[in-house]
């Protein structure tokens, strides 16, 4: 069975972008792959986090994984900080990655822009992400389009290690959705929908109340035309809403175009809002059930135990190849 690994940072409220770009594929892949899904809390602290908020958000994201449909009987769900091999291989990868490679990362440029001081961890972030993936010898990494560059570094590091120290790592492939790989902000279709955008109207959070979702969609920016046509270059706002609709209502883009032919934005937005509410309501109900059941801790502990077996075995092989003395 092929291996799959992915992670999401507990750095704010997860959005529909996270769901469509990544989590929907987690759920899809779990049926016929050996899957590892983690909350990457060590990555979240590459920008300052308030401890109580980090704690709460970490549990929220883990519960959302389960609420979205990840089945702990099929996939290992865990916290990155519970498997210490991540930090250790992360360091080893930091010594292999080049400054020039890190300097090219657009996520680093975006996140450091305009900041007076930036932690070194934000810069070396891709080395830890490479460690996350390579520890499990993952074949596939389900992510949104914005992570392609980090995957490229991971692939380069896998090749570099194998060449320098001997065959160790599988070179992973990104697994990116065809529609919705980059869900854009509702207020500005030139920016990706992001949990760290300070304007709450720019994104739909997975835990937004139905009426909040309806309001956000009714206020979403559209162009001045009235045609429901998928044309990301000329109609980026409407095309973005169509991608969201396609995922939430399980309709193809062509089916949506046909359905709203000649109808204008009003009815389209109304139906879109109900499609999003309909897709998120069961998830929100399951989320509340999971949080109140108290089962989360047990699931995360079991997930970390399963993950540690694989991760420690890889780390042992890596250290031996690099010449570290065995304990
Ligand atoms: P992050 O929120 O940066 O931890 O991202 C977690 C996962 O969600 C990654 O695989 C991202 O590529 C994906 N993702 C985040 N925002 C979006 C978006 N607006 N559209 C599509 N995928 C996204
Ligand atoms: N860098 C990813 C993001 O910002 C999160 C991440 C960390 C990740 N480690 C990973 C994603 C390993 C996939 C695999 O979204």
From TrEMBL:
EC annotation from Swiss-Prot or TrEMBL: 6.1.1.2
Amino acids binding ATP: 9-11, 17-18, 144-146, 183, 192-196
Residues where L-tryptophan binds: 132
GO molecular function: ATP binding; tryptophan-tRNA ligase activity
Keyword Aminoacyl-tRNA synthetase: yes
Keywords from the UniProt entry: Aminoacyl-tRNA synthetase, ATP-binding, Cytoplasm, Ligase, Nucleotide-binding, Protein biosynthesis
Motif ('KMSKS' region): 192-196
Compartments in which it is found: Cytoplasm
Pfam families the UniProt entry points to: tRNA-synt_1b
Motif ('HIGH' region): 10-18
GO biological process, one term: tryptophanyl-tRNA aminoacylation
Family affiliation: Belongs to the class-I aminoacyl-tRNA synthetase family.
This protein's name: Tryptophan--tRNA ligase
Species per Swiss-Prot/TrEMBL record: Paenibacillus oceani
């Amino acid at each position: 069975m092929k291996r799959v690994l992915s992670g999401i940072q507990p750095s704010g409220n997860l959005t529909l972008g996270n769901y469509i770009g990544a989590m929907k594929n987690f759920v899809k892949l779990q049926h016929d792959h050996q899957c590892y899904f983690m909350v990457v809390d060590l990555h979240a602290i590459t920008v300052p986090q308030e401890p109580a908020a980090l704690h709460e958000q970490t549990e929220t994201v883990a519960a959302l994984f389960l609420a979205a449909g990840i089945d702990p009987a099929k996939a290992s769900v865990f916290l990155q900080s519970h498997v210490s091999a991540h930090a250790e291989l992360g360091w080893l990868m930091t010594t292999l990655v080049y400054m020039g490679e890190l300097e090219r990362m657009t996520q680093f440029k975006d996140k450091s822009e305009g900041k007076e001081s930036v932690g070194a961890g934000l810069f070396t972030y891709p080395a830890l992400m490479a460690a996350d993936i390579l520890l499990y010898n993952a074949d596939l990494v389900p992510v949104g389009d914005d992570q392609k560059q980090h995957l490229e570094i991971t692939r380069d590091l896998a090749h570099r290690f194998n060449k320098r120290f001997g065959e160790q790592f599988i070179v992973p492939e990104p697994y990116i959705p065809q529609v919705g790989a980059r869900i854009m902000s509702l207020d500005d279709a030139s920016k990706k929908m992001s949990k760290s955008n300070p304007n709450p109207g720019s994104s739909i959070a997975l835990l937004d109340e139905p009426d909040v979702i309806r309001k956000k969609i009714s206020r979403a920016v559209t162009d001045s035309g009235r045609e429901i046509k998928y044309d990301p270059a000329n109609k980026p706002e409407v095309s973005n809403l169509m991608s969201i609709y396609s995922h939430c209502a399980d309709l193809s883009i062509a089916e949506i175009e046909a359905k709203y032919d000649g109808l204008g934005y009003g009815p389209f937005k109304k139906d879109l809002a109900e499609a999003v509410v309909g897709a998120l309501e069961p998830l929100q109900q399951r989320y509340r059930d999971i949080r109140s059941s108290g089962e989360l801790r047990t699931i995360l502990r079991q997930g970390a135990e399963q993950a540690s077996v694989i991760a420690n075995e890889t780390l042992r092989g890596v250290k031996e190849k690099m010449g570290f003395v065995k304990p």
